[in-house]
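Re: the multi-chain job from yesterday

Posting the exact lines I submitted so nobody has to dig through the queue logs.
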Amino acid sequence: MDFATDLAGIVLGGLSAGTVLFVVSVGLSVTMGLMGFVNLAHGAFAMFGGYVIVLAMNRANIDFVPALALGFVVTAALSVVLERLLYRRLYRAGELDQVLFTIGLIFIFIAGITIAVGPESQTLELPPALGGQFNLGFTHYRTYSIFLIVVGLVIAFGIWLVFERTRIGAQIRATVDNRRMAESLGINVDRLFTITFAFGSGMAALGGGLGAEFLGLDPQYALKYLVYFLIAVSVGGLGSVLGVYYAALLIGVLDFALKLYLPKGGTIFIYVLTILLLLWRPQGLLGRKET
Amino acid sequence: MSASATSAESTSFAARINHPAARALIERHRLRWWEVLPWIAAIAGYFIFPGYLGFGTELLVAILFALSLDLALGYAGIITLGHAAFFGAGAYTVGMLADHGVWSEPITGLMLAALVAAIVGLLSGLVLLRTRGLTLLMLTICSMALLEQAANMAHDYTGGFDGLPNLPITPIFGVFNFNPLYNNTQYLYALAVLLACFVFVRTLVYSPFGQSLTGIRENLLRMHAVGAPVRRRLIICYTLSAAIAGIAGGLWAQVNAYVNLSSLDLDRAATVLIVLILGGYGRLYGAFVGAVVYLALEHFLARIYPTAWQLGLGILLVFIALFARNGILGLGEALWRRYGGRHKPSAPS
Amino acid sequence: MAALRRQAQAVGAIMSETRLETRGLTRHFGALVAVTGIDFKLAAGARHALIGPNGAGKTTFINLLTGVLQPSHGSVLLGGKDITATAQAERVKLGIARTFQINRLFRGLSVLENVYIPVAERMGVAPSMFNPAGKRTDVIEEAMYLLEVLRLGDVAQHRVSELAYGRQRLVELAIAIGLRPGVLLLDEPAAGVPSAESHIILDAIERLPEDIAVLIIEHDMDVVFRFAKRVTVMVSGAIFAEGTPKEIEANPEVRAVYLGQAGARAGDHA
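And the result, C-alpha cells for all chains:
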C-alpha cells in the first residue's frame, strides 16, 4: 500500500498545486496572448490578492469564500486603475521596456506590502470543513487538496466555456489569432484588453488566496514563484486556456514526484524539460504558431 | 540621365568622403576628450576615498558586468534575463579551481573564467538564439535557473547553498596581496581588468562587425535580406558577451574571496539589466553611469531603510520605462539636443 | 553613374540570357494554396512587371524567389543553377536583392549607416571586428555615392526614422542597390508614397544599370506601362497571362479579371 499512498500523494498533491498555478497563470497567458505584453508583475497581483484575502479573514473575520470574492474584486479594480494609467502606455513599446516597467511594479508591490503589513509571513487558517482528511475509499487525502482540484476543474471548464461559447470569448480568440485583423473587424481591442486584464488579475488574486495555505504568503512571493508562472504560460502556449491548464497540472505533478524521489534539486528537470519543449515548440503546447 | 545624377557623378571621391555624414562615421571611433573622465575619476577616487575602496571595487565589477550585457543587449538587441549564468560560470570557475587547490593565480584564473563562460555562452547561444522575443526571454531564465540548480546539487564541488568561502587567491604577479581589510590591490586590479575589457568592447562596437550587430538589433529581417549570416553573428556576440560576464564573475569571486549561489540567481540577472537600462543601453558608458547611480543609491539608502530603497527603485524603474527609455544618458542627450543648441547626429551607434 | 556601370560590368551578363527561372513553383499554407505551378523566366536586363489582384500570391512568389519561404514543390534556378535549397543570405551573395512592400529599415540608425551595412556586407567587410568601421572609406564612399544618386545626400546624417515616408522608400531602394544585385525584386516600391514624390523613385528605378534584371510588383498601371517591357499577370496563385504591355492591355480576359477594376481606379486618380 505504500506505493499507492505515494502515488495518491503525488497525483493529488501535484494536481492541487498545479491547480493553484493554473488559477494564477491563466490571466497572464490570455493577456500576454492578446497584447504580447510581458507582464512580470502578474505574480505581484497574486500576492496582493492573497494579502487582501488573508487579512480579510484574519483581521476582519470574514469567511474564506467571501474573502476570496473580496480579493478578486479589489485586485481586479486595482489592476484596471494600473492598466488605464500605466500599462497601456507601453503596449507598443519593446519587450525591454515592459520587462523594466513590470520589474519596477514588483518592487513597488513588495515594498508597499512590507511597509503596510510587515515582512513576516502570513498564515491562512482554513475553515474547518476544508481542514481534515477526505476518505477516497482506497486512501485518505487532505480535503483541501481535493477541494482545490474540483475548484480548478470548474474554473477551467468555466473559462473554456466563455472562450468557446460567448461573443467576448470569440473576440478574444480572434484577437489572439490576429490583432490587426480583429481591429479591422471592429473589435474594440483596448476595451477587450482592459476586461481580460482585470479578470486575469482577479484570477491571480484568487490563486494567491487559494495557494496561501501551502505556498505561504510573504512580500517575496511576487518574485519567488515568478519563474513557475512564466514556465506554465510559455509551456502551455500564450493565449491558450487549456494549454495553461494542462501545463500547470503537469508541472504540479512533476514537481511533487521529483520532490519525493529526488529531494535534492529535482526541480532541475522541470527547467530541462521546459527548455527542450520550447526548443521543439517555441509556441508552447497548445499555442498558435507565430507568424 | 537627369541633371542631378550627372552632378552626383561629377562630385569627387574626396567630396563624398568630406560630407559631414561621412566624416561623422569616419571619426566615430576616435577618442573624445570626455572619455578619459571616468578613468580620471576612478584614479582620483582611489586617493580621495581610501575608506571606500571595497565599495569602489564592487562598483567596478558591476560596471564590467553591465558592459558585457550592453554588448549583447544594447548592441545586438538580444533580450536576456539570464546573463547571471555567465557571471556565475566565471565565478564558480575561479572559486572551484581555487578551493580545490587546482589553480589560484588570479590573472590566468580570469582567463579560465572567460573561457568557461564563453563555452557556456557558445553552447547555450547555439541552442537559444534560434528563438526570439518572449521565448528567448524564457529560455534565458530557464537555462540560468538550470545552472543555479546544478550548482546547488553538486554540493561536493560547489559548496551547494553555502558556497565556497575563504578562497585562497595568490598575490598578483606573486607580489600584490589581496587584503580583505585594505582593498587597494583589489581596486587597482579590478580597474585594470575593466579598462582592458572596455577597450575590447569599444573596439568591437565601432567595427564593421559592431555596425552589423546594430543592424540586427534595428531590423532582423532586413539583415537577412542583405545577406548577413545573422545567427552566426548573434552567437559570436553572445559568446564574447558571456566571456566578459565570466571575467566579471571571476573578478567578483577573487576580490571577495568567496563564491555562492547569488552569483547565478535571477536577482543578479535582473539587477544588471536594471543597471544597464538605468544608465542607457547601446551607449558603452551607460554601464558606468547606471552602476554608479544604482550602487550609490543602494549603498546609502539601503543602509538607512532597505524597504524605502526598494520602493524608490521600483518607482524609478517605472519612471524610466514610461518616460526615459534611453536611460540617464539618453535623457542627457535629449536635453543637450534641446538646450545645447548644436544639432547632434543621431545616437546610439 | 560610374559606380553603377562598374557594377554592370561586374555582373557581366548577356542580355538575352535567362537570369532567374522557376519551374512548377508551388507553395501551400495548410490547405490554402498561395502559389501554384509557376513557370517563370526573368531575362538578364529584363524590365518585368508582376501584376494581379490583392491576394494573388505576388509577395509569396517574391518570398519564394528570395528564400524567405521554401516551396512545397518546384524549383528556383539562378543562371541555370538550382538554388531551391539555398538559404536566403546565400542567395543575396549570389546576386538576388529585394525591397519590401512595407519599409524594413534600420530605423534607429542614420541614413548613411543604413546603406553602409549592405555595402559592407557585400564587400565582405562586415565580419571585421578589430578595425573601426570608419577606416573603410571605400565602403563609406560608395554608400555616400548611392545616396547622392538617389538625392538623399542632404539627409545622410539624419536618423532614418526622421525622414518622410517617400524618402524612406528611397533608402529602402538604396539598401537593395548597395548589394549590386544581378536580379532586383521590387515589391511595390512606390506604395504609400504621395504621388508628388513617387516620380523620384520611378526615376531612380529607370536609371538602374541596364543589365540588372528587374522584377517589379506594382498596382499602378501607369507605372507598369511606362516601365515594363514585359508583364506577367497573376491570379489566384497562378500565372494568368504574360506578354508585352500592349498585349496585356489588349487581352480581354485580363481586362475582365483585373485591368477593368484597376484601370477604373487609375482613371479616378487621373
